[in-house]
Design brief:
Blueprint lengths: L20 H11 L2 H14 L3 E4 L11 E2 L5 E2 L12 H12 L4 H10 L12 H8 L3 H12 L11 H11 L7 H7 L1 H5 L3 H8 L3 H12 L21 E6 L2 E6 L6 E4 L1 H10 L2 H38 L1 H5 L10 H8 L3 H8 L3 E4 L2 E4 L7 E5 L4 E5 H14 L8 H10 L6 H10 L5 H4 L5
Parallel strand pairs: 4-7
Antiparallel strand pairs: 1-6, 2-3, 4-5, 7-8, 9-10
Helix pairs in contact: 1-13, 1-16, 3-4, 4-6, 5-6, 7-8, 10-11, 13-15, 15-16, 18-19
Length: about 450
């Protein structure tokens, strides 16, 4: 058997997209929200001496640097005392104020170390007893002292115990609330209320009052110490409705801008050698790319927003705020870009109106086929959800509508969807099933 290896030369032409570092960064910049963009631009300015950052209008005044009387640079933030105590700090302070320095107090301090952010105790008394050499009675007494601290419910080991601790301290709690939570918690949760009512010889309306009361208790008492106020929302575009016409404007003032350090560049070039000139040329090209990328990002977001507003004009002019079916693909085709570009352009971007601020992603929704007697038209899933909520809000709470009944009522409105879809929309809206919506008010 002979082995032959033939070589030949031929030309083949192919097209490839080279993902350069700058192209990758341009794609990433489009995805940045306003705060992320500002951080990126400031980082670029640190690396490039020819870039000066012009901060956007939304930059809070207290973030602007000032000079104190000693000539040192400082920030107003440094002059504001931190008065927000954590749950841990609050519990420690209460123990120092209320309990004498005894072994029992040391056990309370030990248990506090195992309180999570929700206020729950994450260690069992048996484990704590073994690690502290305390007796079971001492450990139980320490837990009792801990559970007497604020907020009510702190130190609980289960949700049931947490609700019981809060009910125990409330003078206005329904008379049977504590005992029902203690002995009939599972039946209450499973809505086996007839058993509870029969046991206590009361009407179902009394159990309904207890259930309504418990709904107002906190399942996570420690969360009142969560001081995270969230981030500012910086709208990228603004919509103005005037005389029935809807106009879209770019909030350029909310976007960081860059300025070229012309004086520094000219000064450096006069004394520069070849290596320095090459460095300056490279940094100037980086500035031009950065400026172009920021402008391109703003233009892309504006174009996407204009298409969205054009499709959803009724949302801004009609008091019912209807949202029509719209997909990323449709917007991409209209402005002749890739679907992924539209996805990046709406991710974390917001639109400002007189009614409030809305995320651009809100205006995208899937289609539901709606067949009428004369024609077929598209209906958005958002409209169907609103109709489901409307029907549930109007139902007789003593005889709530089942999912199948909702299907039939929607069909009369010429909205044809399956029972499974109704159940999915109900879950998305946070609406419980019909058995859990039933009320027993007198």
């Amino acid at each position: 058997m002979k082995f032959e290896q033939n070589f030949s030369q031929k030309q083949q032409q192919t097209q490839k997209l080279a993902m350069t570092q700058q192209l990758q960064q341009s794609i990433q910049v489009l995805q940045y929200n306003s705060e992320e963009l500002l951080a990126f631009v400031e980082n670029q300015a640190l690396e490039n001496p020819l870039v000066e950052v012009i901060e956007p209008d939304w930059q809070p005044d207290y973030q602007k640097r000032t000079t104190n009387y000693e000539g040192e640079e400082s920030s107003y933030l440094n002059q504001i005392p931190d008065t927000n105590a954590s749950l841990f700090e609050s519990l420690i302070e209460q123990v120092h104020l209320n309990y004498r320095d005894t072994f029992l107090r040391k056990l309370v301090f030990y248990l506090i170390e195992y309180i999570d952010l929700n206020g729950f105790l994450t260690i069992s008394l048996k484990e704590a007893q073994q690690q502290t050499n305390a007796t079971p009675i001492q450990m139980l007494d320490a837990l009792t002292l801990l559970q007497q601290l604020e907020p009510a419910g702190v130190g609980a080991r289960t949700l049931q115990e947490c609700l019981m601790l809060q009910t125990e301290r409330d003078d206005f709690a329904p008379e049977l609330a504590y005992i029902v939570l203690e002995e009939w918690f599972d039946q209450l949760v499973d809505r086996k209320w007839k058993e509870i009512a029969q046991h206590f010889s009361v009407d179902l309306s009394e159990i309904q009052k207890i259930f309504d009361y418990i709904q107002n208790l906190s399942p996570s008492p420690g969360r009142i110490f969560d001081h995270n106020n969230g981030l500012y929302i910086i709208p990228d575009v603004k919509v103005v409705v005037k005389d029935g016409e809807v106009q879209v404007f770019s909030n350029r003032g909310n976007q960081p801008n860059v300025r070229f350090q012309e004086a520094y560049f000219t000064q450096m070039q006069k004394k520069a050698d070849n290596e320095t000139k090459a460095y300056l040329k490279e940094r100037k090209q980086e500035f031009e790319w950065l400026q172009k990328t920021i402008l391109q990002r703003g233009d892309t977001i504006l174009r996407v927003a204009q298409v969205i507003v054009s499709h959803q004009k009724e949302f801004f002019t009609d008091e019912k705020r209807p949202i029509k079916p719209l997909t990323l693909k449709e917007v991409a085709q209209e402005i002749n870009v890739h679907e992924s570009t539209v996805s990046r352009a709406v991710n974390g971007k917001y639109l400002e109106t007189e009614m409030g601020v809305f995320e651009l992603k809100k205006f995208f929704t899937t289609r539901i086929q709606q067949t009428t007697t004369t024609h077929t038209e598209d209906l958005s899933a958002d409209t169907a959800k609103k109709k489901v909520k409307e029907l549930v809000d109007q139902e007789d709470k003593s005889k709530p509508l089942s999912d199948q009944k909702l299907v039939e009522l929607l069909k009369k409105e010429e909205i044809v969807i399956s029972r499974r879809t109704v159940a999915k929309y109900r879950d998305l809206l946070g609406i419980p099933s019909s058995s859990k919506r039933k009320r027993y008010d007198k």
